[in-house]
Amino acid sequence: MGFEPIRKQGISGSPPNLADYEAARREFSWDRARAELSGLPGGRGLNIAYEAVDRHALGSAGNVVALRCVSHDDRVTELTYEDLRRRTNRFANALCALGIGPGDRVFTLLGRVPELYVTVLGTLKNRSVLAPLFSAFGPEPICERLRLGDARVLVTSEELNRRKIAAIRDRLPGLKHVLVVGRTAPEGTLSFQETLAACGDGFGIPDTDPEDMALLHFTSGTTGRPKAAVHVHEAVVAHHATARFALDLHPGDVFWCTADPGWVTGMSYGVIAPLVCGLTMVADAGEFDARRWYRVLARHRVTVWYTAPTAIRMLMRHGAEVAKDYDLSALRFVASVGEPLNPEAVVWGQEALGLPVHDNWWQTETGAIMISNFAGMDIRPGSMGRPLPGIEAAVLERGPSGRARVTRGRVQVVDRGEGELALRPGWPSMFRGYLHEEERYAKAFADGWYLTGDVARVDEDGYFWFVARADDVIKSAGHLIGPFEVENTLMEHPAVAEAGVIGKPDPVAGEIVKAFVALKPGHEPSEELRRELIAFGRRRLGAVAAREIAFDQNLPHTRSGKVMRRLLKARELGLPEGDVSTLEGPS
């Protein structure tokens, strides 16, 4: 079945921030977007932490709740903007006392606890560089990233220090200080609480050049070794503008981003953007549980919710009726990112939540949302949407590898059709390099375009549709097949909850399409269902449909929601699994 566009919906109260897309693109400039922020007093530059905390605390919003942390056992800790200003000042002073200055790397290995947010913003006040780590990493991935990122300071918890840091500490001579959040600080570490208590709560943010390094984000490593993408203080301009346009954030909103703060989504939109917008931000320390998540949405009167496609699909497995047990009347906008959102999930949001789910697209390297389905526009289910104001996107003709064809340094734009997705550089949150990998960074650009490594198509109205990662493209009997298209089609079958698709080597076709399918409750694997799914795919897709189907109720995901096709392929072919540090589940 096909999916009709979902018409834009009237929103009670304030109209959408982006009500007229074409006018916004014509009138927008990044200079105007910069002017919406304060800048450091006296024209001393631009600092992310000042825009996120101090300008609100020192203005009229000091008593507004900035952060509402929900613990595993549902205890709530609230910090106002003034609370956050004083605590982040203490952390900045603590860094100074430890001899940590501008450019020095401060890593976090923490869950969603108040100390994480204090560390992030205090580090940025000090003009040191914040590098967040995923708390479920094992010791070796942590060690690799601390070494690659030239870590000077690590802030972590008692438990994580004991389980993951103690055994690798002597292999990291550059790591000078480990601050431990908890009741006790083991030998060789410092107590986070005691260190901050010894410092004053007044701090003057130094002059900050917008091009000063601010954030170091490690890519997930799902398609190769992790890279450390460098972002600067200027990125805050894009965080602010894109949150208003793509997430439709308004004053007074209560915002919840479920992304782990160890990844770029959890930092850009789980910390920085909502605070820059002066909102109340909810941070839940609990793991996914359908009823817990609905309870958080209801109890805290969340108005804007940003989550992952995997989470939406997991909620779908529990059925729309579960959502009806909770008062979700405050919710007015739902968005998703992490991997492409299948059309069924967009439509399911309308049924279960009374709101469609708005997909958007961006990368660690872009630092902020680049393409989105906006509140003031029709949604085309399955589409990434249209480029943000200030962003020029295109698809480029690609060669046999699936990547853009570069001939004598030139590329060819495909006006309508399929190719490698590319962006014109120049937006404020564009990454400024891969740390220590200048050559690798240079290869990400050609002929004035940033090459994303994603294959997409663009339709006649300028909506972009994800096809595949270029290195996931399946080459079968002369066809270049995007696995997402096959996955999407299989998920239209009423028995299928989720699918992961790979290319399996074949002596005749080169590769054939093999799908791994997770079923919805009430459906059991059988040979009859296998044949039915193969026939279903062939009716919809013809020659590019899956020729083999395996049932798997535990498809491997990253914590950011991506099905790890690389891991599926390695397991299918009996190859080494490689880096599985980003794999969802216990470490």
Q: Any descriptors?
A:
29% helix; alpha/beta; 587 residues; 9-stranded mixed β-sheet; Rossmann fold; GMP Synthetase, Chain A, domain 3; 6-stranded antiparallel β-sheet; 2 domains
What can you tell me about this protein's structure?
This protein is of the alpha/beta class and 587 residues long. The protein folds into two domains: 21-458, Rossmann fold, CATH 3.40.50.12780; 473-573, ANL, C-terminal domain (GMP Synthetase, Chain A, domain 3, 2-Layer Sandwich), CATH 3.30.300.30. The protein has 18 helices and 28 strands. A hairpin with a 2-residue loop joins β24 (474-476) and β25 (479-481). The longest helix has 17 residues, at 81-97. The protein is globular. The protein starts with 20 loop residues before the first helix and ends in a 14-residue tail after the last helix. The model has no long low-confidence stretch (mean pLDDT 91). Residues 485-562 form the AMP-binding enzyme C-terminal domain. It holds the Pfam family AMP-binding. GO terms for molecular function: acetate-CoA ligase activity; ATP binding.
Low-confidence stretches: none
Helix content: 25-40%
* Average of the residue pLDDT scores: 91
* Intertermini distance: 40 Å
CATH architecture of the largest domain: 3-Layer(aba) Sandwich
Q: What order do the strands of the largest sheet run in, or round the barrel if closed?
A: 2-1-11-10-12-13-14-15-16
Give the biggest sheet.
Answer: 9 strands, mixed
Structural class: alpha/beta
Number of helical segments?
18
The shape, in one word, is globular
Provide the CATH superfamily of the largest domain. Answer: ANL, N-terminal domain
- The Rg value, from CA coordinates, equals 23 Å
Quaternary structure of the protein: single chain
Would you report the number of β strands? 28
CATH-defined fold name of the largest domain: Rossmann fold
β-sheet strand percentage: 15-25%
CATH class of the largest domain: Alpha Beta
